Amino acid sequence: MMNLKIFAATGLAVCFCAAAAAGQKNDEGRIDELLSRMTLAEKIGQMHQITGTGLSADMTAAVRDGKVGSLLNELDVETINELQRIAVEESRLGIPLVFARDVIHGFKTIYPIPLGQAASWDRAMVEEGARIAAREASSVGIRWTFAPMIDVSRDPRWGRIAESFGEDTYLTSAMGVAMIRGFQGGDLASQDRVAACAKHFAGYGAAEAGKDYNTTWIPESQLRDVYLPPFHAAADAGAATFMCSFNDINGIPSSGNEWLNRTILRGEWGYDGVLVSDWGSIEQMIPHGFSADLKHAARQAANAGVDMDMMSFAYTSYLESLVAEGQVDESVVDEAVRNILRLKFRLGLFDKPYAEPQGREAFYREDALAGARAAASGSAVLLKNNGILPLKEDVKRIAVVGPLSDSGRDQIGTWCFDGEPQHSVTPLQAIRNEYPAIEIIAEAGLAYSRDRDAKAIEKAVRAAKKADVILCFAGEEAILSGEARSRADISLPGAQTELIRQLKATGKPLVLIVMAGRPLTIGSEVGMSDAALFSFHAGTMAGPGLADVLFGKVVPSGKLPVTFPRMTGQIPVYYNHKNTGRPASGITLIDDIPVDAVQTSIGFTSYHLDAGDSPLYPFGYGLSYTTFEYGMPRLSSAVMRPGGKITASCTIKNTGSFDASEVVQLYIRDKVASLIRPVRELKGFKKINIAAGESVAVEFDITADDLGFWRGDGSFGTEAGEFELWISPDSASGAPVRFDLANE
Ligand code: BGC
Q1: Which residues of the chain fall short of a pLDDT of 50?
Q2: Whose CA is nearest to atom 7 of ligand 1?
Q3: Most exposed: 224, 294, 307, 507, by fewest CB within 10 Å?
Q4: Ligand 1 site, CB within 6 A
Q5: What's the rounded Cα separation, in Å, for the pair 419 and 109?
Q6: Which residue's C-alpha comes closest to atom 11 of ligand 1?
Q7: Phi and psi at residue 325, in whole multiples of 5°?
């Protein structure tokens, strides 16, 4: 199963559980003792999370009376400390508050959006970004972030794909664990660490039509194989909290789903952290049609094991009467409060409740900016290069155009409430600052991504004509991705395609850099360009990071964490699909069908007449300035015994002239199974450096556990038989070797 075992080999095992275990025993005694002194009203107060309103009379009274356990969105450190003082010194039991905030990909220093971070396939980078975010946020008293979002996201229309680690279960698990480790460190009680929150539990990424908050219909085997493993890995990694998702799964909203929250999370996984609702998600069970009213919703959520109510006011309004009426057992309340107090003990809040204000000193430190710059370059994916990149430093005149060329706000992307666009270094600024000898002709052309101003395009074209090379920074504004920002058409917005068409017509070399919150259907735009670099909104240091790649100071090494469709109608399109009984072959595209063709003349296989059967770019794809040659995988044995392992290795040669990093990917396929298995599944990856001309042997251990899945009889395990294995640069290339898993 996807758990610590997988990560131990790669050094990702989080020591949080072990390190905290000793202290935890003592905490349990203190928790019980405290609980025994609490009134029912005080217990319910702990289960209530509200948004900050400064030091308003209502807020200070609520804190003093023990009617609130946690605040979100309070950011002023003096206010935070004063509210904490009231909680600790003036409330009857002195239980500290915990302050929370969405610190998703940075607090002040913004890293690439999580989808971009996933494109780096670099666990250490993701961990470091979260460490920096924790340091900055905790400096104002925030000790709980609502991240990472580990919803497997197969639909680029869904705006929240930006916040995800993409379409793959294994990659999402690995990145999620790295981020949790970065936020929490080895000791959550360190004041520069924050509690992570694995969200949204569960299945939110399966929203129908990629429309946010939409319903999902997920068979149990798919839920367990695809959507739950990242959460299981997060629980095993010691994620201090979990958050419910907004969606219903198969008719049951997560905030009222006993099976999900009790049977699986608490029962099967033994999770003892806090489960918080999403914002208003308890109340939203009413419009879902699952709860008759708020009291009903409160009962369902409490009984389903939701410990803390974020902004529904359901528990404070009704839990006391529900207990009195016997509709919610007080032991349910006690269990929730235990989980909440445990979090506060783990965070060390009983011993050190106050933040030590550090002012702006805590922000934008040198290591933070250097990390963000490396993350921006490390997560850029080179889609195409006819040799124009890297740019030569002796290039004389560059036209910098496009609506994303100088937009500090847009480059930091979605979900960075505290990011400060004025601290962003844009591509235009970076190129100007760092290459003063080059003449820069800056003419955005379009003021923002949805702009359709033809006159402005003319200006950009005039500028481009004077240059030796055109760098066109296109994409999406930040506001077009993120929560409730779904799109039914994921092409480049506004008149950007026309801008690119006219730039191409100048005959000047054209480099397209796309900065966006999701995959876009950019086949024709890439086709018109001499080189194309895809950068998911890359944060504060996007400019210098991308300039490093464009000028070859950094060789691109990012790989797509999600499939890019040719056109929106192909969605859902993801690499680990099933084969079908009639896999695509003999594809005839729509324009190649003879007029009056007879029905049987173009075959009967699984593809679209207008899109064929391949994506624009497959999962795992990304070019480099160098080239790599993969040898055939070698296996330590052609047969794996049950409970055993085999080692797969492959020699990879850097056949180009740049030292570079390569993300080497391991895939398997289970050929025959009681429930059909995907055509390929990622089971491992390594990002390695290979010097020009050198060869490196890369090894992966595969255990029988890695081959398990939720089988036809509803149990987890393996099935004997034939497997294929690839070690390849992406999910669509390479030749497989075969091995057998032997019977018991
Ligand atoms: C989002 C969560 C977020 C919460 C608090 C909700 O709308 O779904 O991901 O953590 O708001 O801001």
Answers
A1: 1-22
A2: 279
A3: 507
A4: 102, 146, 199, 278-279, 483
A5: 7
A6: 279
A7: -85, 0
